[in-house]
Amino acid sequence: MLTTMKTGYVILVMSAVLLGTSWGNYGAVPPKPPCRPGFSENFYTVFVSRDILQGQSILKDTMVSSGRVKFDSCQENEAVGFESSDPSFSVRMDGSIYTEQDVSSLAEPVQFMVTARSVPDTRIWETTVKLALAGGTVPPPTAQIAWEDAQQPSVILFPAHRGTSSGGLRRQRRDWVIPPINVPENSRGPFPQMLVSIRSDQDREIQIRYSITGVGADQPPNEVFRIDPVAGKMFVTKPLDREERSSYHLRAHAVDMNGNKVENPIDLYIYVIDMNDNRPEFKNQVYNGSVDEGSKPGSYVMKMTANDADDDTTANGMVRYRILSQTPLSPIPNMFTINSETGDIVTVAAGLDREKVSQYTIIVQATDMEGNLNFGLSNTATAIISVTDVNDNPPEMTVKTFSGEVPENRINVVVANMTVIDKDQPHSPNWNAVYRIVSGDPSGHFTIHTDPVTNDGMVTVVKPVDYELNRAFMLTVVVSNQAHLADGIESSPLSTAGVTISVVDVNEPPAFHSNPKSIRFEEGVPPRTTLGTFTANDPDRFMQQIVRYSKLTDPANWLNINASNGLIVSTAVLDRESIYVKNNIYEATFLASDNGSPPASGTGTLQIYLIDVNDNAPVLLPKEAQVCERINTNSINITAADADVDPNVGPFIFELPVFPSTVRRNWTISRLNGDYAQLSLRIQYLESGVYDVPVIVSDSGNPPLSNRSIIKVKVCHCDENKECTTIGAVAAAGLGTGAIIAILICIIILLTMVLLFVVWMKRREKERQTKQLLIDPEDDVRDNILKYDEEGGGEEDQDYDLSQLQQPESLDHIISKPPGVRRVDERPVVPESQYPIRPVVPHPGDIGDFINEGLRAADNDPTAPPYDSLLVFDYEGSGSTAGSVSSLNSSSTGDQDYDYLNDWGPRFKKLADMYGGGEDD
Fold first, then answer.
1. Rounded to 5 degrees, what are φ and ψ at 820?
2. Are 461 and 411 in contact (CB under 8 A)?
3. Per-residue DSSP letters for 856-888?
4. I need a surface site. Which of 46, 311, 446, 703 has the fewest CB within 10 A?
5. What number of other Cβ atoms are within 10 A of residue 42's Cβ?
């Protein structure tokens, strides 16, 4: 069909024509076929108007098809994307085909493949689109496509060529649309199996060689198809598998013997026809689902799906589901049904009860060929459906009345245990019981805790009960679940029960009326004074018991209590100033005990507040003082201390006694304030010494108390700062002039002895160091090895210049220095001492004298090392002034005679034995 619009605008019309062999449908065709996702046709032919080639070009983004490539996804919300194998064209979401680049002409047909991809499950559908010239005449017999029956392969002729026109131009015939070649998968052969024969109309004139290219020919997988290069017969070499590859795109070529192209290539599309060779496969063999008990019919349970690798656009891949069996069959054999197309399992009937059946096992069968059991392939899977619990069973008390007992004055004890029955899922909110006391406990003595394991209610005492007030309790308890009951379920009347709790009487200790009890008395209460009674009551009114009293604590042992009536009597004087009285209060504790079984006792505290009386005279402070011997130089500040409290303390009155008369003649007291006074000299001068000055101090009590105290005053000679000097202090201490002189002489003698001792120690140390230079016979270096036990840190630890320690080659720089100035490492420039000369012929008796004389000379020689210098040992440097010792050897062949060593005494005996050839030789 050709459609035209306004001049200059052409809309191409897409004619959907399905060419090729139609395969039969296995299975019965339903009255209303189900939706099959995919393209409506396997091959689309689009004829382009001839007018578009008359000097015009198809511009970019020009719509090629006014229609669309029809695709049905069978799901409204499923996203499908389209792709074109030819980059010159694109397919939009609505199936419209557009050009992507300039197309100048359609002199030759254009054929490409359109692929549809499903986004959720990545399924793929393919179709072929071919653009050809519209309005052409019927092709001549030389350019035709001949199709035989199913046993006769087709013969495809290349388009024929006309001769040149009068203008010298050659016009080539248009290609026919080559329909796809359909090959069934899993063919049994024999192979190779011929598919089609390709011929060129020039094979009568020249020899033609045919070839094919593309995937399956010269591209992997190679050699699936091959062609006879001479006869042009194309074969398939092995069975095809549609699930591995559903289509092939090949190109047929015709060349002469020299390899020159004779014909334009022909596109060959080979489609693998699906066969039902795959069973539906469930992803899992066991599926788990759940449904609430009591669900209504039609309630969704779960979904089961099976995938078939065959073409799902044909009956081969269309899967249908059905339930084979249900276990158990209660309450009816068909409690569930499954949607044959979607695999959704729903309930059919009511009656799901978890307490009767908690789980169902269903065998589901999936069959392809649209469920045709005669031709379709099947597979099975198991669905395990758990019936989930809902709170449709309220808890029920096992009995109507529970009982228990509780001792009085006890808490946190379980007094009764309540049991319930609940058929719901154990240890779930539908099963967990919650207990409430609704009556019988207005004071809140009890509470009920739920045992998480047994679900029992434990009645617990949280507030002590008194037998004398309540002998029994009648509680009303209601039980419910932690979760609310399901809709339509009414609470059972058995969820309420009564609890009878008896209170057990126990022997309670007596209790004092007021604890602690306070009484007030003035201090100084004499012994055997009645202070009052301290009694207790026995709370056990229904027991005839006797209470006895005893003293528990009495720190000062001042009190006594009558065992029968609790009368308290003093046993000593109550003194507020006692160390046992704190903040004017004296405390004592008493014990009240009954004769019950077992006996019980209670304690009470008695607090006696002692009121102060003026029974303590003030005491003068300080006891000792110091004053200068001159008047008006300094004074003594005095005060008083009183053990009483206000008003029996200050202000104090200070005065000097009349007798002896010297007190008032030498001293005077002046009042500073209520608590302080000042004692000073009355006369101009008082000889240094220690004086006992009596002072009378009186408090402000009623009546007042007085005390005559003595203060020792040291009168001394003072300096200009009005402070006692050392001599004055000594004199003030009562020492005479002779005693002072004797003390000074003793101090001088002691200092002299210390000085002499220090001088003697230094001299002894010097002598000890001098004697260390003498060598003991045992330490003679000639017969011994000396170990110094000193290891240096190594040259890496020496960061100083060792060249400064080398022996100088010349002493000129030392001689040129001024006298008295030298380096610490220089040898003193003084006349050297004369050492004794050893006699030519040594005498054994002279060796000792000779060594001693040499030592004395070395001690007195200032030039003999070690002088004030730095000594370096074991250092080998350059420029040594010593000669070479390489000529020395240990050969014993010399002519040296060492026999004279025997004459040097016992000290050289070992050396004489080694070198002199003694008696052993």
1. 85, -5
2. yes
3. HHHHT-TTSSSSSS----S---SS--SPP-TT-
4. 703
5. 20
CA distance 807 to 211: 108
* Span 160-170, pLDDT tens digits: 544 433 334 44
CA gap 71, 427 in Å, rounded: 55
Q: Would you say 530 and 433 are in contact if contact means Cβ atoms under 8 Å apart?
A: no
- What does the angle CA 875 – CA 877 – CA 881 come to, to the nearest 5 degrees? 105
How many angstroms separate the CA atoms of 745 and 768, rounded? 35
CB 275 within 8 A of CB 242: yes
Q: What is the end-to-end Cα distance of the chain in Å, rounded?
A: 148
pLDDT: which is higher, 295 or 769: 295
pLDDT, tens digit (0-9, with 9 covering 90-100), for 129-171: 877 665 443 333 322 232 333 334 566 666 554 443 333 444 4
CA angle 449, 452, 458 (to 5 degrees): 30
Q: Are 143 and 159 in contact (CB under 8 A)?
A: yes
**Which of 504, 507, 516, 503 minimizes the C-alpha distance to 538?**
507
Q: Give backbone dihedrals phi and psi of 893, rounded to 5 degrees, phi first.
A: -95, 5
Is the pTM above the cut of 0.85?
Answer: no
β-bridge mates for residue 497, sequence order:
477
The predicted-structure confidence for 69-107, as pLDDT tens digits, reads as follows: 677 777 666 678 888 877 778 887 777 777 776 555 566
Give the CA-trace dihedral at 738, 740, 741, 744, to 10 degrees.
Answer: 160
pLDDT for residue 180 = 84
247: Cα separation from own chain's centroid: 59
Tell me the average pLDDT of the chain.
Answer: 76
